[in-house]
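Researcher: Let's do a round of design. I'm pasting the structure tokens now; please hold your answer until I've finished.
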């Protein structure tokens, strides 16, 4: 198993996982050429970097105050040859949006499974392709549309029911592949228990405000990671309305 020197631990809140621990770590590799010294002193020698660099790896884990304190204590013991040894089979690669851009992180499967288990939220997509808005934003062709949040519940008689909640906005590249997928999307029939359940990990998520005749309302905005997020956000009015 890989061993790591922990160089940073922070608590953060990300969508859709909520409160998490973000851990930055550098791999500690056994030093070559020290076999003689290791035999003499019974100590293993390692090479590692104690500051953030191009090879620094980022982990996202469920938040726990106790776990965070344990990691802090372990992070201080690298000079004693004690390192963090996460089981990499318990992580999957995912994308995380940061102020410096989108980065790849090792995301705990506990977070992934928790989201899947709690995933009761679905969407009623647009009813026709005329509701797709084809735009050119910052020289990039995009298609945007709104979908209605809904929660599906099983009924005692073996049927189901759903409600209609807030409106959310989605933005995709305007290309043949996405248009075909969206045209399939509008064929879904809620009366046949056909709802859209997008994988929100494929999107940058934020909350936006809309001003209407009855005041300001907040909505979810999901931008495909296949698009430059900043361009859409900087031209939001043009992109959505």
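Researcher: That's everything. Go ahead.
Model: Designed sequence:
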């Amino acid at each position: 198993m890989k061993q790591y020197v922990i160089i940073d631990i922070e608590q953060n809140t990300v969508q859709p996982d909520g409160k998490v621990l973000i851990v930055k770590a550098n791999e500690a590799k056994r030093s070559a050429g020290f076999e003689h010294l290791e035999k003499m002193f019974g100590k293993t020698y390692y090479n590692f970097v104690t500051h953030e660099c191009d090879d620094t790896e980022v982990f996202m884990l469920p938040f726990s105050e106790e776990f965070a304190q344990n990691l802090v204590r372990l992070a201080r013991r690298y000079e004693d040859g004690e390192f963090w040894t996460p089981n990499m089979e318990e992580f999957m690669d995912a994308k995380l949006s940061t102020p410096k851009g989108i980065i790849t992180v090792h995301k705990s499967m506990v977070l992934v499974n928790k989201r899947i288990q709690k995933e009761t939220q679905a969407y009623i997509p647009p009813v026709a392709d005329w509701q797709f808005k084809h735009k050119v934003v910052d020289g990039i062709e995009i298609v945007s549309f709104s979908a209605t949040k809904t929660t599906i519940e099983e009924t005692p008689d073996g049927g189901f029911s759903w409600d209609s909640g807030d409106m959310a906005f989605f933005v995709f590249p305007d290309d043949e592949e996405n248009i075909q997928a969206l045209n399939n999307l509008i064929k879904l029939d809620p009366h046949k228990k056909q709802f859209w359940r997008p994988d929100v990990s494929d999107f940058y998520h934020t909350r936006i405000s809309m001003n209407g005749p009855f005041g300001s309302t907040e909505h979810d905005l999901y931008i495909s990671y296949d698009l430059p997020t900043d361009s859409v956000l900087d031209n939001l009015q043009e992109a959505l309305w």
